[in-house]
Amino acid sequence: MDSTAVEIDGSVMEGGGQILRVSAALSCITGTAIKITKIRAGRSTPGLSCSGGCIDWLSSLMDCFWGSEPQHLSGLQLVSDLCSGSLQGASIGSTDVSLTPGKIRSGSHVADPQTAGSVCLLLQVALPCAVFADAASQLCLKGGTNAEMAPQIDYTLKVFKPIVERFGVNFDCDVKMRGYYPKGGGEVNVTVNPVKELRPVTLTERGNITKIHGRAFVAGVLPFKLAKDMSTAAVRTIRKEIKELYINIQALQEKEKACGNGNGIIIIAESSTGCLFAGSALGKKGVYADKVGIEAAEMLLRNIRHNGCVDEFLQDQLIIFMALAKGTSRIRTGAVTLHTQTAIHIAEQLTQAKFTISKCEDEMSSSVTYIIECHGSGVVNPNL
Q1: N or C: which end of the chain has fewer CB within 10 A?
Q2: Catalytic residue among 72, 306, 339, 345
Q3: Is 315 within any annotated ligand binding site?
Q4: pTM of the predicted protein model
């Protein structure tokens, strides 16, 4: 291990997947060797283990980034592969992982954890790295496209993608196959184009909500009625609070492009200034479909009440791009999440970026919003 490696405490703050994702990506981009220590330190079984089955692992260890031991390794391996790096300690029971990065390589990269681990979280760690390659990269990501404790692929495409493109990030995403818990079997092909540098983004004016739309889906053997029930319940819930807008939530039966059984819903709200918000939920055994629809609707309503410009799930995903951009980014949010605070902590440790969070009293709404401001480190792509 490189003696100049930056040591990252894997037990601080959110203490899970967020630390691994942000530190691995920034190690790759900045060329800084890292050693992540005390992984799962506060847990009953420290280190990279899969005891208690994959559900326990999903929720407790890596916030579902890593889904199971194979998923954990495939995420780290993907970053290591992208930056021609050397990876040490990525094995079961390990509490320390070290990554010594090399040059970022374009071309084709595959990540296949052979579980329902989230493809969206694999993309979260790989995308910033591929942006700083010397040419276009093709990422073949396998696993769960609509997985618990992670963004659904529809969120990544409809909310994350349009906003992250404002930083200058450019990627295309082709959903070849949808995969659900517990089988996985999903596949997403992503083409990422490199950039010289990222530009800063200002998102401080929310404007009015102008459009609400979504999709409620069933796949496999589940009856189409579930999709209609989720949609109807969601529309009814939103109507109680937002009366003036037409709400279009399509009920869909996933046919050819779906592996296994699943049901779920995602609802997206757009504002007059181009802000995007979402609420989503997945069906579980024994949970009525209308409950799933109501859960997604309430999540969306919660995220548009505060008058911020991003929802609670986009917040932390934008931190790495703010840190890498050249110039000052400003984003208005609702309550700042622990995931976001964790991402900021790691970004400041591994880049020259400086973040400040200030509270705003909002005359328009009773709730408080915050401005996350970042003087970006202005990373320039040395490979272009």
Answers
A1: C
A2: 339
A3: yes
A4: 0.93
pLDDT digits (tens, 9 = 90+) for 342-355: 999 999 999 999 99
pLDDT at 15 over 90: no
Instruction: Tell me if 355 is assigned to a ligand binding site.
Output: no
pLDDT at 18: 85
C-alpha 151/C-alpha 63 separation (Å) is 11
pLDDT digits (tens, 9 = 90+) for 227-276: 999 999 999 999 999 999 999 999 999 988 999 999 999 999 999 999 99
Q: Count of CB atoms within 10 A of residue 51's CB? A: 14
- Could you give the CA distance from residue 319 to residue 372 in angstroms, rounded to a whole number? 9
Whether 114 has a binding-site annotation, put simply, is no
Does 375 qualify as catalytic in the annotation?
A: no
Asked whether 208 and 272 are in contact (CB, 8 A), the reply is yes
**276 assigned to a ligand binding site:** no
Q: Three-state SS across the chain?
A: CCCCCEEEECCCCCCCHHHHHHHHHHHHHHCCCEEEECCCCCCCCCCCCCCCHHHHHHHHHCCCCCCCHHHHHHHHHHHHHHCCCEEECCCCCCCCEEEECCCCCCEEEEECCCCCCEHHHHHHHHHHHHHCCCCCEEEEEEEECCCCCCCCHHHHHHHHHHHHHHHCCEEEEEEEEEEECCCECEEEEEEEECCCCCCCCEECCCCCEEEEEEEEEEECCCCCHHHHHHHHHHHHHHHHHCCCCCEEEEEEEECCCEECCEEEEEEEEEECCCCEEEEEEECCCCCCHHHHHHHHHHHHHHHHHCCCCCCCCHHHHHHHHHHHCCCEEEEEECCCCHHHHHHHHHHHHHCCCEEEEEEECCCCCCCCEEEEEEECCCCCCCCC
In percent, the amount of the chain with pLDDT more than 90 equals 80
Q: How far apart are CA 328 and CA 309, in angstroms?
A: 17
Binding site annotation covers 250?
no
Q: Which neighbouring-strand residues pair with 281? A: 265
User: 16-55: per-residue pLDDT in tens?
Assistant: 788 989 999 999 999 999 999 997 676 566 665 432 223 3
Phi, psi dihedral angles at 249 (to 5 degrees): -115, 105
